[in-house]
Amino acid sequence: MDTKVQQKIGLKHGSGGRAMRQLIEDVFLSLASPVDGIGLSALDDGAAIRVGDRWLVITTDSHVVHPIFFPGGDIGRISVSGTVNDLAMMGATEPVGLTCAVIIEEGFPRADLERVVASMRETAKEAGAPFVTGDTKVMGKGQVDGLLLNTTGVALADRVVSDAGLRAGDLLVVTGSIGDHGMAVMARRHDLRLEGDLRSDVAPINGLVRAALAAGGEDVVAMKDPTRGGVAGVLHEMAAKGGVGIVVDEPSLPVNDEVRAAGEMIGIDPLLVANEGKAVIGVRARSADKVLAALRAHPLGARATVFARAIAERPGAVILDTGFGRRMLAEPEGELLPRIC
After folding, report:
1. What are the residue boundaries of the PurM-like C-terminal domain, all occurrences included (predicted)?
2. What residues are paired with 60 via a beta bridge?
3. Residue 174: is it exposed, middle or buried by C-beta count within 10 angstroms (0-12/13-18/19+)?
4. For residue 118, what is the domain's CATH number?
5. Which residues on neighbouring strands pair with residue 59, listed in sequence order?
6. 302 in the same domain as 177
């Protein structure tokens, strides 16, 4: 019997790790068509299509957050930030427009819906990203879980930055503390009573990325936002696509005390936890100081730091240097904290 007949889709297949990538490669890449630029087969943050002497950048994202309200944000803020940030990761920091499709469960409180829409409106204004069209559907009770959102973003860019541009000697910068979003959602979902102010980092970072691109120019060679799969997932993608190894200096990683404590409590490494307001940026070593200074001058990049470097050895591998020794950093199979974005 064909074993595929018995296979079922699990939560891990939508969680940004190895299992999701395998599903996409096995099933969805059959939809890919040749384009003049970056298309579906590149598995980047979006598509980039040549239009005259510029690039049309397009991305789409669906959002299934549970709970829909959490410390620091909500599903509406994620829907705008996630799409704007995916455009920015391709080098398109000035969105032309956003679309929004909303699927609502029968019985969902209207007051909560209006609260989500208000959050979307405020975040779109913050990002300079106007909504231009959308769609609404209502499903029967129990046919969908509360509220699901899909947003698509369109922008123009003079230069596209893919996630595949690393070469040996390049440095990697993370724009701030890691693991904040996933840990904040997890803590609210499970009502964990943790000390401190554990809040999501969800924010549109197109202005922050614009500053980095202005400072580094063509020496900014790869970008990706560490959402599902966290920083570890991003590094594995960048290493594999760039044909390089990556060495991470673990002591230099910015981690908030609340995130570190939560991670130790439940046994989850912050490197594996999603972020919604951060970027990992690959830059030629000669321009790293300029890019770092530009990031730190922006309110969302005050804790930006160089935390890793690309090497010629061990292509595709990610190596964690703890300061006491080295070990391989495994790629996540699936998201340890599902339904967080």
Report:
1. 167-319
2. 152
3. buried
4. 3.30.1330.10
5. 153
6. yes
